[in-house]
Amino acid sequence: MKKSSIFLQILLIVILMVFNSANSLDSLRYDLKRGWNMISSPFTDSLLVTEAFPMAIGSAWEYNTESGSYVEMPYVTAGTGFWLMVGSDTVINLVGDSFAYNLDCIFEPGWHLFGGPAVTLPANNFTNSPIVLGDPYGYNPETRAYLIADTLFPGLGYWIYFSDTLERAMGAITDIDGNVYRIISIGSQVWMAENLKVTHYRNGTAIPNVTDATEWSNLDDTETGAYCEYNNDPSNILTYGRLYNWYAVDDSRCLAPAGWHVPTDEEWKTLEIYLGMSPAEADSYWYRGTNEGSKLAGRADLWYDGDLEDDPEFGSSGFTALPGGYRTNDGTFYNMSSYATFWSSSEYSTALAWYRTLNYYYTDVDRLYINKQAGFSVRCLRD
């Protein structure tokens, strides 16, 4: 089956999210096509079908995995895909109390017709699990054909098959500054799928932005938390996030959003072992494992050519580690496009802390310790 492009996916339904400042409600625009449409609701509240879709012919229909049959649904809710028929091409703005940016779902074995949260997600939010057999399928109401979906859009319905029960967190979270981060379930853990960008601790206190190299190197004297952008260039923030020293990671005012934390060295090992590293390898130093680094990486267009991106399982975990480089303890920036470096919250000694590195030249993962005033990327893990 031909893999769908983003353009074909958008043809399924035209999505436009609008914030209505007059009534503080969220709305989603649907471009429904004559006949059957496979869609979903991205709202936190349950919506009565007859009020939400007054133009519909008959009822909305969801799929019951246990019975293997369709069930009439009077209300539509986030996380559930459904079929809806209309007699002519119709544009409608569906209004709800608020968007469901996060969904925690439990999928039983079998086929599911589901709807995603109110954020666009890559399909590997599901396909990174061995329990998921095959790809998600969307539906094009104009051609009346199923298409493999490499991207999951808000407001659409998708078919997917599970060989066993799977708990899955989907969507995004927001930090105190309003930055939004996609999240990804990997094994029993839920991770941010993007690098941290926050400039304030959880209590609202500003984190010092230190651009001067000498000042950065002297932070070790006062054990002061700080952040910077790679090369002090704000244009790097959107893609790579910000770099933080370990004192910011360890600050009691908390770098991570509420309900999240910076992972410990042991929690990094849990991730690596789930991806195939042996426990003995996980406990060792330097580069270890097989291709777990390639699985953790993403965006081949950002990495230098090397074994990391050449591995056939590159990007398969959905973690999407990017080569944002790092800042040394003397304040110098190095290795954008070559290295992805991440702090753990675990100390090795009073002067050193554990970290992880992915290198474009290797498929495995480096585990080592370094001076706490180094500037690395940060990924957060759900409590």
Write a structural description.
The chain is α+β, with helices and mostly antiparallel strands. It folds into 2 domains: 6-172, no CATH class; 184-382, no CATH class. It is built from 10 helices and 29 strands. The strands form 12 sheets. The protein has a 4-stranded antiparallel β-sheet with strand order 10-17-18-19, with no helix packed on it. Strand 24 (324-327) and strand 25 (333-336) form a beta hairpin. It is elongated and about 70 Å long. It starts with 5 loop residues before the first helix and ends with a strand. Residues 1-24 have low confidence and may be disordered.
Describe the largest sheet: 4 strands, antiparallel
Describe the strand arrangement of the main beta sheet, using strand numbers. 10-17-18-19
Question: How many separate structural domains?
Answer: 2
The count of strands amounts to 29
Principal-axes geometry comes out as: elongated
Distance between the termini: 40 Å
Per DSSP, what share of the residues sits in E-state strands of 2 or more residues? 35-45%
Total count of helical runs of at least 4 residues: 10
